Structure formats: C-alpha cells, structure tokens
Recover the amino acids of this structure.
C-alpha cells in the first residue's frame, strides 16, 4: 500500500475540521453583526432619550430663569410701590399739616375779621348817633354802641398772652355776661379756667374746667376742658382721677385730638 493512500483519512479529517471552523466563523461573524446592530439601535435609543433629557433640562433651566426674572421684576415693582406709597404718605401728611396750620390761621383771621367788622359797625353807630337828626334840641349826641364779642375776646386774649391773668379773666367774664350765647362763649369760659391754672389756683381751675365741659358739651372746648382736668389731676398725684378723666374724654369725644393724647398718657398710667 502506498504511503500517500494511508494519509487520505487524516487529510479528510483535517479538511473537514477546516470546513467546520470556517462555518463557525461565519456564524460568529453573523452574531457579531447582530450584536453590533442591536448595540447601534440601543445607542440610537439612548441618544434619543438623552436628547429628550437634555431638552427637558434646558426647558427647566429656561423656566427657572423666567421665574427668577419674574420674581426679580416683582420684587422691583414691590420696592417701587412701597417707595411710591411712602412718598405719597409723606406728601399727604405734609398737606394735612399745612391744612391744619391754615385752619388755625383761618380761625384767628376770622376772629380778627369779626373784631374789625364789629369795630366798623360800632363806628357807624357812633356816626349815626352824632348826626343832628339823632339828637334832640338841647340833648347830647352820645353813642350807645358797645364792643362786640369778637372785640372783647380779642382784648381778653391779648391780656392773657401778656400774663395779665386777672385782667384777662375779667374781660372774658365781660364777654360771657354781655354775649352768653356767642359761639365764643365756650372758649371764653375755658380761658377763664386757664387763668386760674396759671395763677396756681388748682381748685378754681378744676371746677371751671368741669363747668365748661358740662355747660358746653357739644363744643370743642368740652373735650379740652376734660383733658386739662385730667392733666391737672395727674400733676397733683391724683392718678385714679386722672385715669377716669382720660377715659371719659376718649369715650365722649373719640375723634378729638385730646382723645389721642389721652390714649398716650394712659399708657404711662398703666390704663
């Protein structure tokens, strides 16, 4: 038997083994291609998902910026609003102060005008009384004209400002006697109490303040009289009396300036 014939089975086996390996490689290559394809598909899906996430984050970031800008804008508007309100309130307070000052000036001016008018009327009456027609034969041309309430009040107030308490009190009393129904009567009565207080006559001042409040309860002087009684009592150590009078002015005249002052003073007395 020839040697090469003996090698035929081995060669067949070797060749058969080679054919099997190449087939496996092709299968393996196919599997690798499939894996790569799947990986590519998965990468593509992940990329799409990642793009969605990035887009969502950007949108959220933009929203946060918008919200931040809106909050900043709102804060700026609130700051400007508060600033404008503060400026407006200051302006209103200044206007109210000016109105109060003008009102006070108007009251004094009105009294001066009344006194001036009364003085002119008095002069006219004197002129009429001095004419020949007004005097009988052999008679005297005298004038019965007397000062009006504003003139008397103005004269009394001048005495009070100068510190002449007795003279001022007499002038105010003269006004009350001659013109008891004058709109200046409450203030005149209040001023009489003030003259007593200035002289240190506490009892007379307190009783006159009380008389003012009871006689002219609807006047502005009533609240002032009660308040001054309370302050006078507080100065003299009568704390309970002062507290009661402060509460009284708040109850009867809640919208008065004296009521506001009474609230503040009650805090020092422990209410």
């Amino acid at each position: 038997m020839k040697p090469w014939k003996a090698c035929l089975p081995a060669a067949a086996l070797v060749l058969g083994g080679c054919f099997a390996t190449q087939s496996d490689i092709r299968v393996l290559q196919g599997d690798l291609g499939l894996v790569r394809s799947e990986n590519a598909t998965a990468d593509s899906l992940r990329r799409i998902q990642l793009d969605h996430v990035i887009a969502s984050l950007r949108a959220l970031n933009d929203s946060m910026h918008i919200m931040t800008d809106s909050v900043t804008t709102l804060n700026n508007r609130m700051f400007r609003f508060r600033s404008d309100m503060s400026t407006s309130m200051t302006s209103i307070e200044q206007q109210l102060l000016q109105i109060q000052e003008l009102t006070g000036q108007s009251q004094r001016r009105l009294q001066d005008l009344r006194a001036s008018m009364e003085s002119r009327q008095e002069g006219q009456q004197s002129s009429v009384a001095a004419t020949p027609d007004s005097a009988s034969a052999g008679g005297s041309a005298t004038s019965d004209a007397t000062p009006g309430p504003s003139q008397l009040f103005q004269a009394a107030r001048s005495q009070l400002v100068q510190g002449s308490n007795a003279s001022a009190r007499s002038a105010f009393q003269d006004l009350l006697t001659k013109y008891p129904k004058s709109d200046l009567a409450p203030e005149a009565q209040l001023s009489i109490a003030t003259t007593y207080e200035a002289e240190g006559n506490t009892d007379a001042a307190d009783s006159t303040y009380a008389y003012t409040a009871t006689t002219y309860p609807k006047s502005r002087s009533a609240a002032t009289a009660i308040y001054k009684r309370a302050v006078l009592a507080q100065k003299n150590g009568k704390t309970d009396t002062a507290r009661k009078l402060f509460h009284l002015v708040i109850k009867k005249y809640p919208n008065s300036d004296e009521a506001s002052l009474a609230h503040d003073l009650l805090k020092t007395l422990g209410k």
Q: What stands out?
A: The mean pLDDT is 74. The longest helix spans residues 8-130. The chain has two domains: 48-122, 147-269. Residues 48-122 form one domain.
